[in-house]
Design goal:
- By secondary structure, this protein is α/β, with parallel strands linked by helices.
- It has a single domain, classed as Rossmann fold, CATH 3.40.50.1360.
- It has helices at residues 3-6, 18-39, 53-63, 67-70, 91-98, 120-130, 182-187, 201-209, 235-241; strands at 12-16, 43-47, 73-77, 79-81, 137-141, 165-168, 177-180, 191-195, 226-230.
- Helix 2 packs across helix 3 and helix 3 packs parallel to helix 5.
- It is globular and about 40 Å long.
- The protein binds 6-phosphogluconic acid.
- 6-phosphogluconic acid binds next to loops.
- Residues 48-52, 78-79, 91, 141-143, 147-150 line the site of 6-phosphogluconic acid (6PG).
Length: 242
Amino acid sequence: MSWQARRTAPPDLSVIEPDAFVSSAARRLSLEIRGVLDTQERCSLALSGGSTPRPIYRRLADELPGRDLWSRIDVFFGDERCVPPDDPASNYRMVKEALLDRVPIDPAQVHRMEGERTDRDAAARTYEAILPDRLDLLVLGLGADGHTASLFPGGPALAETRRRVLPVRGPGAQLDRLTITPPVILDARLTCVLVAGGDKADALARAISGPFAPEDTPGQLARSGLWLADTAAAARLEARRR
Ligand code: 6PG
């Protein structure tokens, strides 16, 4: 499907029982990555932070063990907290521990956001320069408030149409971050949003089927993509479907 058509295509939603969510999500990510590599030489894969993806990334390492595939994958990040890469809050550290340390990938193929840099705008511009024009597969999460990457409801970055990476202030006491902007999500060949837990039920219902208002529910930017949700997160959706 052309990426232009994807902007208005309906979501591709899979609702999965909680005890099968991790294995099913890892299997689907593996299939999507293999699908890209069946049709082209390389795959640009951007990963989300947060807690939902961690066990999925661990399982993905088992699903995709071979150097033959990992030598053709370039890893990027959708956002990063403004902390050193070895900080417990670092998305890079989480992905490294859950996935990158468990697969045969050359570190030169892993492109982290330098959240630790004092000049955050310079760090964002450095990342923009290496980010592909169109990511092949962008993995995202969804916050209970409807945020995705580090695009938060009402945040100024949601109005960005030119810059592809921006420094942002997290809401409340949250850490400052670097994040991809809406154009990067909209231009991705495929987005895959991983959503688990009943606390996400309202946000998922808004993201998938609410009135289109990404300034209120940034997760809607990925509406036309693949959504992998457990039954708890999909509870409101199921209700709507009855
Ligand atoms: C981050 C993520 C963020 C995450 C959502 C959902 O830096 O935390 O990029 O966008 O995907 O907050 O997080 P959970 O999956 O942990 O609920």
